[in-house]
Amino acid sequence: MSVTILEHDGVISTLTINRPDKLNALNRDVLEGVAAAVEACIAHGTRCLIVTGAGKAFVAGADIAAMATLSPAEAQEFSELGHRAGHAMETAPFPSIAAINGFALGGGCELAMACDFAYASTKAKLGQPETKLSVVPGFGGTQRLLRRVGSAMARELVYTGKMINAQEALRIGLVNAVFEPDELLAEARKTAEMICANGPLSVQACKRLVLEGADLPLPEANALEAKVFGECFATADQREGMAAFLEKRPANFKAE
Ligand code: COA
Question: Is 90 a catalytic residue?
Answer without folding.
Answer: no
